[in-house]
Amino acid sequence: DSGVTQTPKHLITATGQRVTLRCSPRSGDLSVYWYQQSLDQGLQFLIQYYNGEERAKGNILERFSAQQFPDLHSELNLSSLELGDSALYFCASSATLAFPGRTYEQYFGPGTRLTVT
Amino acid sequence: GQQVMQIPQYQHVQEGEDFTTYCNSSTTLSNIQWYKQRPGGHPVFLIQLVKSGEVKKQKRLTFQFGEAKKNSSLHITATQTTDVGTYFCAGGPNAGGTSYGKLTFGQGTILTVHP
After folding, report:
1. Do A2 and B42 touch (CB under 8 A)?
2. How many CB atoms lie within 10 A of CB A73?
3. In chain B, which residue's Cα lies nearest the Cα of A102?
4. Which DSSP helix (H) or strand (E) runs through B37?
5. Four-residue CA torsion sign, A24, A26, A27, A28
6. B27 at interface of A, judged by CB pairs closer than 8 A
7. pLDDT < 50 positions in chain A
8. Model confidence pLDDT, tens digit, residues A8-18
9. Statement: residue B104 has pLDDT above 80
């Protein structure tokens, strides 16, 4: 158990809908990362937050957005869902904000499996 | 942007055989991390390498970071069925980058071990 929690575990929804995935980082971790894992794309970095502020962005679609709240939990919002958005979405956390040239190990949650029908 | 390539994509071995996965980056990395994901599970951190030419061992696992800090390898000696899973390398941005903490993951190597 990594200490990172994600809800829900599974989500089935229809195209065009909007969903919210929730993540609680390990106690004391200030950085939260979101990843998308699909069969043909591996682990794709979406976005990173540190203590409520966005710090890095990956290949995140405009239909997707995220935020980190004062209690440090984070939510990933996916809207206008398409079939291709079906994937496993992981949240990870790390202890602190990395500085240039240094990264810290990330602790992954169990993931949310999203199926868009 | 930074790209991290990992080969092979799949590796099937008999229990007791050795296994190696290789990771290559298009740019110089500040560090490299390795993760293991068991089937149906989530990635779990294994190790981080920071120094040029660094070699680290964890029991039957040996990790290397290239001299130019653009490649890395993971070698498992005498595989066991418990080694089954996907092994990912992940490169940290170089010192000139601004994406603090962002890791670029390789595609992963799926290891199957036949008893």
Report:
1. yes
2. 15
3. B30
4. strand B31-37
5. negative
6. no
7. none
8. 999 999 999 99
9. yes
